[in-house]
Amino acid sequence: MTGFAPHREYTDRLGTGSVPYQTCDGCLSAVFPPRVICPRCGATELRWSESAGLGTVYSISVISPRDALPYPVVLVDLDEGFRMMSTVVEIPAEDVRIGARVRARVDQDGPSGPRVVFAAEGRSEGES
Amino acid sequence: MSLPDLRGATAIVGVAESDLGEVGPDRYAIELAAQAAGAALAEAGLNTRDVDGLFCAIAGRGMAPLDVAEYLGVRPRYTDGTMVGGSSFISHLHHAALAITTGACDVALIVYGSTARSDSGRGRLPSGPPELPSYEAAYRPRMPITGYALAAARHMHQYGTTRTHLAEVAVAARRWAALNPKAFVRDPLTIDEVLASRIVSSPLSSLDCCLVTDGGGAVVVTSAERARDLPRPPVYLLGAGEAHWHRTISQMPDLTVTAATESSTRAYAMAGVGPRDVDGVQLYDAFTINTILFLEDLGFCAKGEGGDFVSGGRIAPGGALPVNTNGGGLSYCHPGMYGIFPLIEATRQIRGEAGERQQPGVSIALTHGNGGQLSSQVTAILGGQETL
Ligand SMILES: [Zn+2]
To answer: Which Pfam families would you find in this protein's record (chain A) (predicted)?
Structure first.
């Protein structure tokens, strides 16, 4: 018997260009990464939603390989209330700042399949 | 039903390291574990026949307690293979105290070994199926360094912590290591050298990161009553506490606050002491940011003040609060799971057996283990006879 497979559901939705996450009707939490139970209230009915893709950089580390260009690894807080690891593209790694507003898109050619990446979104939040 | 009263009910009666550093390609993790076990039991005046409780964790070995029991020829009636990364052994100490106090075993052996350094390049590392799908791997973080780097960057952003503050931690550890003949790296180190070293995952440089060494360790625990008949001065467990809130760094609620806030609260409450009563601190310094975060979360300074707190050599030899007097994971030894070594050092400091690096008058020592990516946090408070 095949049951609910949240990781498969996530990757399928990502493949269509959406930024999927789950929501809990019990406590109204946003849930990410995907799972079969709400980590806040224990409810087992989670609904899929599509993020608008806007978020704020919570932290950043730039990795400098010896033989390749530096690249940023960021944690982004999405406006819907969940956090994910990602990267910021299209600007130099050293220009990415904590507090910067970023917008998601799906990179269909990620190293292990589709992945969410972010680009700078104009203004920065004066976040402390 | 309430927990048994663990304060002073059990004691550490033997500790030992195995050969440390780089032991060469023909030796195995289990041999280092067994070498340490033999030495710790000898110090305790016991042997493998006395061991009826076995506590161990070895990275990459799911059935480490079975391997170690067979190798040593022990037949435990109580076994605990709790694997919460580098915090496992301080967790084992807590569990051993519970097991001894409730009669599940009499003599507990906590044991660890690793040939992390000698393994590099000989392809011994196992790769099994992932336990969970990874939502981080696609971004190529250099784990575990990047996890700690993200915490450091956030701490710097929120509190004005600087790379110089981080460097103070590395320099203090090195100064302690210079006093420890067993430390892997003992040459002088300056703040400028740390600042000038290669950035691996910003803001952390190679000198903000722990060593990769080989090494094993063992700790023998028994009831306070039995401990009094054994050769070494008993070092009592006064309090212990455990907590974990996440595994992957992207799920850590606030990267500047660890579950050490909760594990230490439990440990202090059980011990009936606070940070002001602690004479010496041995904590898990896999990266320089760890020391700053843990000094805050263990209550030695306020949140955000860790950078200033470690400045000016305050945690170095001669400073007001000696921290990681063996040289820590940064300069003494780090075989991948460091947590048994702060326990060994805390025991030696209380016994007054730490040689050139001995602090005067240590009667209460705090030892803290960390596992995963600032994930599992375990605190133990140890004391000498006079603290009972
Ligand atoms: Zn819920």
So the answer is: OB_ChsH2_C (PF01796), zf-ChsH2 (PF12172)
